[in-house]
Design brief:
The chain is mainly α. The chain has 8 helices and no strands.
């Protein structure tokens, strides 16, 4: 994998390529858009592409990381070491989903598309693992403040919350309303906070 560009202009060009590819791949799948589609959408050329990426697979890996970063931007509760409110995190998730027009999860949309790509599958698993760990840390902070049950295991709770989010987001996408996401998150949080 090539190193990130050293100049601001290089970082902007690389970001334009990744952003365009992310939009196309989210709509048409990781394998859907051609390199020419990505170049046209980003306003860049092949020489620029190969300056920043060795292959289309490397671009797909960059897209997965880009999508993960987008998810984390909408869930500031996971990045704030002083934050311990599961309800506020839930509101961030629901608001981001509503703003997306009830689209599929920016990262979860690729889950079934990496089965034949072990390298990309490993990257996706690692990113979901980081997300789950962020949720586990949030639960641990909430438990330390007495906001969740003392017997709640943070790692298990992180997995529960991520599963509730993914399943709820998928059903909210299908029905084009937030009810399934809201209820799945509420149920998971209630299980952690019930006395």
């Amino acid at each position: 994998m090539k190193a990130l560009p050293a100049t601001e202009r290089g970082r902007r060009t690389r970001a334009a390529i990744v952003g365009a590819a992310a939009g196309l791949m989210r709509q048409h799948g990781l394998a859907g858009p051609s390199l020419d589609d990505v170049l046209a959408a980003s306003g860049t050329g092949k020489s620029q592409f190969y300056h920043y990426f060795d292959s289309r697979r490397e671009l797909a890996a960059a897209v997965l990381h880009h999508q993960f970063d987008r998810v984390m931007e909408t869930q500031s509760a996971l990045r704030d070491p002083d934050h311990a409110d599961l309800g506020a995190w839930r509101e961030q998730v629901v608001a981001a989903h509503r703003e997306s027009g009830y689209g599929m999860c920016p990262l979860g949309v690729f889950a079934g598309q990496v089965d034949d790509e072990p390298e990309l599958g490993g990257i996706l698993a690692e990113l979901f693992g980081r997300w789950e760990a962020g949720l586990a840390d949030l639960v641990a902070r909430a438990r330390a403040e007495g906001r969740v049950r003392a017997d709640a295991e943070p790692e298990d709770a992180g997995r529960l919350l991520l599963a509730a989010l993914q399943g709820g987001a998928m059903l909210a996408h299908v029905h084009r309303r937030p009810t399934a996401l809201e209820r799945s998150l509420d149920t998971a949080i209630a299980a952690l906070t019930a006395r």
